[in-house]
Amino acid sequence: MKEIRQALRVQGRVIYALILREALSKYGKSKIGYMWALVEPISQVLLLVLIFSALGRQSPVGGDLAVFFATGIVPWLLYSNLAKRMSSAFSANQALMAYPHVTPFDVLMGRALLESTTMIVVFALIVFALQLMGKALSIHDLFNVITALLTLTVFSIGVGMINAAIRVYWDSWDKLFNAANRPLYFLSGIFFTASSLPPQAREFLQWNPIFQCVEWVRAGFFSTYESAYIRFDFAISCALILFTLGLIGVSQTKHKARNL
């Protein structure tokens, strides 16, 4: 038991060091660098608000359009950033994996924890800012919002680990994945809700776990929206299955990942 605790302590320190390294690499040493984490979601929200306001559209769940789009954009970016950035984790940290204490799993978890924590903090800051501006009410069901984001995080880390494992053997995998992933931006509920769709479209999109999680976030966020189309068991099952497959993929490719 003592040896296990010691091993976990060492791995924890390694992952913590990797998180710091990733943060410095991505955002730099200046505090201003971290502000860039807010730029992407805020700019996308503002752009969508301008477009939909010009078209005379209103929020399908009531309230301000900025709040509606924020609850779609941030979950999407949480998924997209994890899936894409974890894919290149091995190649970006190749030199570090020469050390026996730094495993491919550590490298992936360091990047995953940084990306997921950053996006959840960004989401909290955006919501807080909108509340200060009087555009957002208090969150209706915080437990459901947190559970939905955690489910989406587990799902996204699973996709990221699978991408990293595939890229060990196929370096051009990123290009194919990004091309296949791009349509999901329009199919994951950023611009609409399940209840606003025709039955056939709704039946099709219910098989999209990202769409399910976005609906779940909004059902927890807005007291005016209660989606009858959320399949909680499906979303959680997809997250656990993808995460398990990701772990298997990383385990099977860890030796080759050290020698790319």
UniProtKB/TrEMBL annotation:
GO cellular component: a single term: ATP-binding cassette (ABC) transporter complex
Membrane topology: Multi-pass membrane protein
Gene Ontology terms describing biological process: lipopolysaccharide transport; polysaccharide transport
Location of the ABC transmembrane type-2 domain: 32-253
Keywords noted in UniProt: Capsule biogenesis/degradation, Cell membrane, Membrane, Polysaccharide transport, Sugar transport, Transmembrane, Transmembrane helix, Transport
MF terms (GO), sorted A to Z: ABC-type transporter activity
TM helices/strands, residue ranges: 34-55, 61-79, 112-133, 145-170, 182-201, 228-250
Pfam families: ABC2_membrane
Domain of life, per lineage: Bacteria
Cellular compartments annotated: Cell inner membrane; Cell membrane
Similarity comment text for this entry: Belongs to the ABC-2 integral membrane protein family.
PANTHER family from the UniProt entry: CAPSULE POLYSACCHARIDE EXPORT INNER-MEMBRANE PROTEIN CTRC, INNER MEMBRANE TRANSPORT PERMEASE
Entry protein name: Transport permease protein
